[in-house]
Amino acid sequence: MVNQTYQKKTGQRYTEEPQGNLERFYGNKYLIPLFLFLFFIWSVIGTDFNLKTLVEGFPNILDFVGCMYPPEFDAFSNLVKPAIETIQMAFLGTLFAALISFPLAILAAKNLTTSRLLRNTSKGIIAFTRTVPDIVFALIFVSAVGLGTFPGTLALSCHSIGMLGKLYGEAIEEIDPQPLEAVEAVGASRIQSIKYAVIPQILPSFVANTFYRFDVNVRASVVLGLVGAGGIGFELIYAMKLFSYREVASILIVIFIIIILSEKVSDVIRKRIIGEEVLK
User: Fold this and answer.
1) CB 233 within 8 Å of CB 222
2) Element (H, E) at 85
3) Peptide bond preceding 70: is omega within 30 degrees of 0, i.e. cis?
4) What are the boundaries of each domain within the chain?
5) What sign results for the dihedral spanned by CA atoms 34, 40, 45, 50?
6) Over the stretch 170-202, which tens digit does the pLDDT of each residue have?
């Protein structure tokens, strides 16, 4: 019955692989949950996870939040410029990363690049930029060009290459090979093949992943304020050091507004580029 179902769904001659996969799945259905459970217990012990301690410290959380109320509304006027800088950092960081990640993803894709040296080199660059935390990149660039939003933008760009390059590469390797083969069969160049057979297939994934990374970079730019990389994150860290908790609340409100607005704008642009039918 399994053999007939597989042959009916795929239209291909049945092989023993699906049956072997089923046997391996049912053979490991108790082993995998047991492993995950043991790993969960080990992680709880290793992280000193304790709900009792959390419950006992809950009054301290309420006291901390109480110190932030009411927000210091007079500070909003001074937060406009840092908020704009944060959006600019996230935008430029994402844009530069996308422009660099796309050719790297093409070179790293098995179905587009035959040279193993090029593939491994591209994958190495993507892996390296994904491995190094963005705050380390920020420290490096701050030491090179000084404090401000410029090193923050560079740090976001470098770290975003790792994530976008990996996602773009996976999307390229998952495309339908038939359009690519058809375009190449009529004598299209490599650039023409990518333009007419690859980009149309990966466009929804490309747009979605790029805007998701922009949303991540908006929040990451806040953390980069720890090392003086500018933006509203710098204002947040400065207010925390001065124990100006009411101003901290105002800054958090502004950050919340920035994230909500960025999500709304991203949704609108995605619908215009991809189409509402595809996103439904």
Assistant:
1) yes
2) helix 76-108
3) yes
4) 2-58, 72-279
5) negative
6) 898 888 888 888 888 888 777 888 888 888 888
